Amino acid sequence: MGLFKSVNQLGAWGHFKILGPIIIYASVLSVFPLGSSLWFLDGERFTSGPLTGGGVMASHTFLSLLLFYLYSFHLLRPIYCSFGSNGFETTSVPKEEEFSEELLLKPLPDYKVLAHFHFTSISPPSSSNGKHHHLFPKSIAQLVKKYKIRELELSFTQGRWNYDRWGASDPLSTANGKPPGVELWALFDIPTKEEIDATWRNLTHSLSGLFCASINFLESSTSYSAPLWGFLPNNGDLRYGALPREAVCTENLTPWLKLLPCRDKAGIASLLDRPSIYRGHYHSQRLKLRSDGLNGIVIEQTLSVVLQPIDRTSWSMHQLFKKSLTGKCALAKSSKVFLEIERSLVSQNENILELVGEADMVTNDQRDHSTIYQYNVERYSEHEALDIRVNWKKLLQVSFLQAPLHASRFLMGSGNERGSIAISLQSARNSTKGLYDNSKNCFTRVVILQVVPWYVKVYYHTLRIYVDGAIRDAKDVVEKINVTPSEDKVSPGTLEMMLQFPCGMMSAALILDFDKGFLHIDEYPPDANQGFDIPSALVSFPDFISRRIYPDSISSPLLQSYKGRNIVKSYTEVLLVPLTTPDFSMPYNVITFTCTVLALYFGSMVNVLRRRVSEEERLAKSKDKRKPGLIPLLISKISNKVRGIKEDSANQSQSSEPILGPKVVFKVVLIALIAVLGHYFFNSS
Amino acid sequence: MEVAEVEAEVEKKATATRSRLIVRLAALLVSYSTLVSVVCCLAGLIALLVLPLLAKNTYISENALLPGSANPVLSYQHVTQANNLILDIMNIADDKEAPDIEIPKLIAKYMEILGAETYHHKFSQPQNQFHPLYFFSTSPNSPPTLANLSYGTSTVGIIRAPRGDGKEAIVLVSPYNTQNAGGIDASASSIGLAFSVFSLLSRATWLAKDIIWVASDSRFGDHTSVSAWLNDYHNPNFIGDASSNRIFKRAGTMACGIVFKVVEKERREKYEDRDVVTMYAEASNGQMPNLDLLNVVHYLAVHRQGIRVRIGMFGGLVKSHLVRVLGEVMQQVGRFARSLNPDWRFEMPSSEYVEGTATLASSIYSQALGVPTGPHGAFRDYQVDAVTLELSPRFSLKNEHTRLAFLLKGGRLIEGTVRSVNNLLEKFHQSFFLYFLTAPNKFVSVGVYMIPFAFLVAPLPIIAASLFNLTSNRNPWRWLHTAKPLLITHTWSVVVTLLPFYISKISDLPSTHCMLTWAGGSLMALVILYIVFGSPYSKHVEWRLLKAVMIASVSIGLCLMSIINFATAQIGALFVVPMCLFALPIRVKTNNSLIRSMVMTCNLVMAVLGFPVTAVALMQGVIKGFGTVSILEFWDSMKFLWGWNSATYLYLVLVHLPCWLLFLHILFHPCR
Q1: Which segments cross the bilayer (chain B) (predicted)?
Q2: Chain B residues inside the 8 Å CB shell of A578
Q3: With contact defined as beta carbons under 8 Å apart, do A99 and A331 qualify?
Q4: Under 8 Å CB-to-CB from B13, ≥6 apart: which residues?
Q5: Residues B174, B86: contact at Cβ < 8 Å?
Q6: Do the Cβ atoms of B155 and B104 come closer than 8 Å?
Q7: A279 contacts B10? CB cut-off 8 A
């Protein structure tokens, strides 16, 4: 029964496996870009895939291709059905490609729970099946192949990782803390800079279509940068970009789930109940991939959610996710649930936490920072679902391992003209010494990577560094600095800085002044009045390694990744800079004013150009003999009157009525009266 | 000048050439300058009086605000929690030795229970130093010396929006004062009110912006603590003691500031059937928050919570007979107009007109003074929209039941406002920033209130041109002769502006002495300037020319001021424009003795009333009653103005005073 069910659930995956090659083969025939064709396989993605990703295509070719695909899909439908019903074998998973699923639950000190889903797919370097894959998502494999990606990480994050409370220097928080919005970086295996830039642009479009997000905004050269060592030491083949304003929602989760062989139909991913996970305080969904000749392609798909249990003192998996874990994904090599308990939660009072449910294995890490409880999902079934329950016996305030310095960033100044960016580093009092063996040279090295959009014009020479309330010469503190100044409408400014602070330092601040630039009218986003974002700065501490080493008896890709030499790093807040914004709601006024000014300008210009003064004077002289015009006559009279000069007798021959004589006034008043009366009578009738 | 040149040309060619139409029209206006100026001035005055009739109803312009679309969820549970805090504060105020240390601790403890990030902000009283050169900038950044001064402690709590990105923040400010023993009820209730809202927001899942609650210790005034905190938020000082910087926490760009305090009125003039909230919106130099913010508060208070909304109003004007008569006249005119044409609907009951006028006068006056009417003014200095709400309960706060009911109502009002601002994606920009209020739900927008000022200022250039034409000297550069007296007066006014800076450096002078020193110094400066530059009445200086130049300089000054603070320019124009129009030397010979004597009387009256000292006294007398006004208090009122960096001080000394001096010059012109 169970087997039958899993086959049914895997039906869709089976279709993918069998149909994928055929359709993609067709797409190769039709000279269609591979990267954007991948999502035509599923009916529901059929329209949204090309719409978001296919910006590169001309619209008519796009339409014809769309028709072609619809048609091919239709043609293939009978085969699809026949294969779907009988021709699929579940048992013989090839050994080369591997998939494993894991979930790590971790109680946090403020009674929230971190749930960290970790899915790993591995594809060996040369697949025995050529271009075909069994478990590994083909779209990703093609992406890697086409764009020659060595490493790539894409993260969608909503909310902020609370470094103070949720920890900052254990491997989980170092990996989990991501800036809000989208962050994408990639290392390419391409020699020249121009080719890398071109590949990056194509990659953003492909990912944009793949994940239903506006990652394609990273295509523009104003939005990505190439840090040399601030982010990851490289030879100029790294590209880094962030979109702080990108909203994250189920739209992005669905394509991410489709990369999993069981999707969210079976296994650990079935816990992903949308309302529950999006109710969390922090939500970060990531895709990380590495590819090289030896190991092939490895994808790590992780989803970290910080959930607030309804009852603060006790929670269980079922309460958190509103679903129960009834079994593993049949295609997974291993399927495990871990519960990690930090030592600081236990050490003070042994029975502050109580676990309900029996773990398959309990181990501590080498340095005794935490305890891991392991549960194997295979053991559980629909009759006996896995439900870990944790009870807090006592509420108390503890904090997890902090980074050596707590980084925060803020804006200084006010107004629309200028301001300053301040990065403030404050030592976490307890954790600078003792935790890490770093007291020999007693300098803390800090690397700061700050990417600033071009319309925030940072003056890098204004860098001021304050250490413990005293200004310090930059030469004394800065060990290495790399500045790429921004170029208007071409590239953002990048600042990479390696600083050396004495260990005993309590606080430091870095100030950079900037001017706010003006944007062209069509460069403003629709919500320009909100202000503009400066992406998060990355502060990393190269001397501090976050690692946890567990005994080798636990074979788990998640815990393996804990062993790596991960540098402790933290992201700062996104900043919102209000820029001068034109009043878009008043186009009418603007048009009227502009037109008036233009009309006046052209009128007077034409007048000046057209007039010939000497000729006019000659004309006027010849006119003199004739009768002068009425108005000049009047004006001369008026001016005479103004100066109190009585009218000359010479003018009396051409005497005329004064302009506002009693008769004229009488006439005007009469006409006005008639008009008013007429208006009154017409209106009253 | 251009007009005059063209005039001369026209005369020279004597009907030979046709000049351009616009020039001819200008010449026409200039030739009838007297008529034009009288008509314009009258129109300006009438337009000013008609403003209450032209006021429009307010409306919520920004759709995203959605006020009142969600039901308030503030419950009795939150309010009873807050009540515990109120009781604790009252106990501390009664029993403990040092309530000003204990109360911030208590508030911080309550904040931490809610899971907020908390810190204390210490500040000292700023020295009210006059810096004439730093006028429009915020106060210069001097390191505070907390060591030997008494300092206040504000308590700040921050709730991070659960799913927000932390780019923006809404600031709630609740001032309290422990020093004032009588008002501890009201102070504790302000904090309780803030706490009830804060405890609700700490559990809210819908927050998109962080919430900052500042329980500000207002022992040095409400404004001081808020502005000190805002200054440290925006311009922190990194040099010196770094510990205060270490604990200071921030939460992004401020979207809006809401200041609220509970005030218990001692004696009520009339029986109130509802709780009342009074809105204060005027910030420094006549800046106003976006009208939408006031609209949201008004809408929620009136239509959701049933609270009466008030704004500042001159009570004296409501009782004034003159205004009542005007109201009657307006009503009659409106009725007549309606009988002529039913579509003309500007009829207004006289009582409404009287109230509108009193409110409008208060609105114009508060803007013209350039001094913020509450702690919200500190926010506006950083381009943050903010409003102060003063809630006064219908029943006494001593009774626990009525207090709970009042807290619930007030808390729901603030909850609704926070929710509306939280809905905003962009900052406030849809609605008006330049407006006067004639009622809590009626406003006069910039397009309308500019008309009276335009009418008042329009005759000035025309009169100047016509006077220039009337002079006997025909040299087009003849006005240069009058540049000397103009230069003298303006140099003098600059000296007078700067003198208080040096006087205030001499410590411990009583204000009358300061005033006398200022007056004496100014007189001396004037005498020295005369000795250096010689008499202003040289033989080329005709009085007409002098008057023309004075009018030109005044109109430039008024127009500049109207850009900086419109209301000041508006009130100033009422004083200055008659002075400019009527100025006539005593010794001038005219034919009509009746008109001459009338003009002379007006001139003498204006010479007295136009003097800034008497003008200020007069304004204050009109508003506060004449009993309390003394001329020697001028120093204090000026100190008040520059203490708040109000540009009205600059206007009075740099525009009004030279105008008055030139007026005197004309008055005593020898007329050779």
Answers
A1: 21-54, 446-470, 482-503, 515-533, 545-564, 570-588, 600-623, 648-668
A2: 253, 383, 427
A3: yes
A4: A620
A5: no
A6: yes
A7: no
Dist. CA A141–CA A21, nearest whole Å: 13
B234 and A506: CB-CB below 8 Å?
A: no
Element (H, E) at A154: strand A149-158
What does the alpha-carbon distance between residue A112 and residue B522 come to, in Å, rounded to a whole number?
A: 70
Element containing residue A598 per DSSP (H, E): helix A587-610
- Asked if B391 and B263 count as a contact pair (C-beta separation under 8 A), the reply is yes
Chain B nearest C-alpha distance from A368 (Å):
29
- Residue from A198, A202, A333 nearest A261 by CA: A333
Q: Chain B: nearest CA to A407, how far in angstroms?
A: 11
Pick out chain B residues at pLDDT < 70: 1-19, 96, 127-149, 181-182, 241-242, 266-271, 507, 625-629, 631, 672
Distance, in Å, from the CA atom of B394 to the CA atom of B191, rounded to the nearest integer, reads 19
Cβ atoms B538, B487 nearer than 8 A: no
Q: Hey, is the C-beta of B590 within 8 angstroms of any chain A C-beta?
A: no
Q: How far apart are CA A491 and CA B390, in angstroms?
A: 50
Phi-psi region of B286 (alpha: psi -120 to 50; beta: other; left: phi over 0): left
Chain A positions touching B341 (Cβ under 8 A) are: 679-680, 683
Q: What is the pLDDT of residue B320?
A: 85
Rounded CA separation B605/B608 (Å): 5
Q: What is the dihedral of CA B491, B493, B494, B499, to 10 degrees?
A: 120
Helix B446-457 × helix B33-54 angle, to 10°? 160
Query: For chain B, first and last CA: distance in Å?
Result: 24
* Minimum CA–CA partner of A395 in chain B: B113
Cβ-based contacts of B590 with chain A (< 8 Å)? none
- To 10 degrees, what angle do helices B99-113 and B184-201 make? 20
> Cα–Cα distance between A325 and B259 in angstroms, integer?
50
**Of B18, B28, B239, which is closest to A629 when you measure between CB atoms?**
B18
| B350-369 helix and B566-582 helix, angle to the nearest 10 degrees | 100
Residues 450..479 of B with a Cβ closer than 8 Å to A: which?
A: 466, 469-470
Alpha-carbon gap: B8 to the closest alpha carbon of chain A (Å): 9
Calculate how close chain A gets to B85, using CA atoms only, in Å.
22
SS3 A114: strand
Contact A260, A269 (CB under 8 A): yes
Rounded to whole angstroms, the Cα distance separating B325 from B49 reads: 12
Strands B442-445 and B435-439: antiparallel
Instruction: Look at residue B172 in the predicted model and tell me its pLDDT.
Output: 96
- What is the widest separation between alpha-carbon atoms in chain B? 96
Of B16, B27, B430, the CB nearest to A639: B27
pLDDT of residue A626: 57
**Do A236 and A230 touch, CB atoms closer than 8 A?**
no
> CB–CB of A620 and B253 under 8 A?
no
SS3 B73: coil
Sort A42 into a burial class: Cβ within 10 Å, 0-12 / 13-18 / 19+: middle
The arrangement of strands across the sheet holding A353-356 comes to A314-316, A389-392, A353-356
pLDDT less than 70: residues of chain A = 1-95, 126-130, 347-352, 395-397, 429-441, 585, 623-632, 642-660, 684-685
Between positions 25 and 64 of B, the ones with CB within 8 A of A are: 27-28, 30-31
The verdict on B383 touching A (C-beta cutoff 8 Å) is yes
Q: Where are the beta strands (DSSP E) in A178-262?
A: 181-188, 224-225, 238-243
Task: Search chain A and give the residue with CA nearest B12.
Answer: A636
| Chain A nearest-CA residue for B431 | A585
